[in-house]
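Hey team,

Filing this mostly as a record. A colleague (T.K.) asked me to run one chain through the structure pipeline before their review meeting, and I want the input and output archived in the tracker in case anyone asks later how it was produced. No errors, nothing strange. Just documentation.

Input sequence:
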Amino acid sequence: MKHTPQKSAGPAVDVLVIGGGNAALCAALMAREAGASVLLLESAPREWRGGNSMHVRNLRCMHDEPQDVLIDAYPEEEFWQDLLKVTGGLTDEHLARLVIRHSSGCRPWMRRHGVHFQPPLSGALHVARTNAFFMGGGKALVNAYYRSAQDLGVEVRYDSAVERLELDKGRFVAAITASGERIAARACVMACGGFESNIPWQREAWGQNERGEWPAENFLIRGTRFNQGVLLKFMLEAGADRIGDPTQAHCVAIDARAPLYDGGICTRIDCVSLGLVVNRDAQRFYDEGEDFWPKRYAIWGRLVAQQPGQVAYSVIDQKAIGRFMPPVFDGTKADTLEELAALLGLEPAAFVKTVHDYNAACRVGTFDHTALDDCHTEGLTPAKTHWALPLDTPPFYGYPLRPGITFTYLGMKVDETAAVRFDGLASPNLFVAGEMMAGNVLGKGYTAGVGMSIGTAFGRIAGVGAARACGYTHPEFEEEMSEVSHAAAH
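Output structure:
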């Protein structure tokens, strides 16, 4: 094998941050605020900077009373129960509650770095109480953080993918880039994403199913093409303690016509709970009305991944129009069920029977798509437990679905310090944040905005930890985290 000569990086920096999204930027800003010199390496070119954070829209926030852009209250215990439900208990409660408590107080800091929030939204997501939305979305948030980083003197390099680290018994020494450059630093924060964009790794993780299919070959990537998981794989092979199942991910049912990469939020199909979903055999396979869409939308990608051909179809009638966020692609429209089936490539008789069986099972009470209403089915498997209205009002609409991977949950195990661990021992100067450790909180499932909660909390914690490893302190954050830790202990 030919070895590329390593080039000197010049004087060592205090804190090296690897990654360019929300968690990395939070770490870089916090370390710089503490007084450390900071170099941030982003693998993408400048125009694609920000990783998956470009596509985010909001932050899930705990609050005990109305706060600026958040209405009513969303107390810790309700947030925790929401997280517990979607993860099925596959979460570290201590770290989850740390994230939840941190979410209650991070917005003033975000505002100081140029992030703006918009007034509560109305519409299909029903999250004005639980989530704070960014003015201008994730792209505006990322741009604000980069501007603030520049103003504070953080050095940023684009097109700078890191392939491996130089380690000494768990201590970070230097990073080696794809070009062979060796960059030494006194401490390091890794926040460069999961392996969602690495289709061969996805294929290996998911394997072959009983039908002889390789499901991952039909996956679409909702976010950045640059999250290849190169450094994650290196760290796991280097012996970092791991967390998470490689097949678990933020996996959403998105429009099958979406691009392979970077489709973002507009490719999501949000009418699932207002109609029914069938696979390519025209059979239903899950309760479309199990819970509010923001709590359950991220289970549907995995459900579709388990269906033949990794494809499904969300079907509604005219009554649903105006009650959900319209997707970027128009639905297939037809005046009869038989015509819709033919247009979608479904066997008409099987599809019509599925719809008629569903219609006959509907027990319509008081329909309310903003509440867990009493419209449900009886004698139908699987049941539809809420919002069950017959599909009987043409025109009918169908949307093809594919699994859309946002980010993967396989990562590195951490504690409340965000330090990477080797055989249970914390590294003194190597930290991790964002997707690379989100599996500690998200063993499976997802609820809207919690990825940003995790990235913001652990990005800030990791940045302060890295600065502390270099001899710097951040008194304001130390006080904030002391209060959070005290609350967590009780």
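Quick notes for T.K.: The chain is about 30% helix and 20% strand. The longest helix spans residues 450-469.
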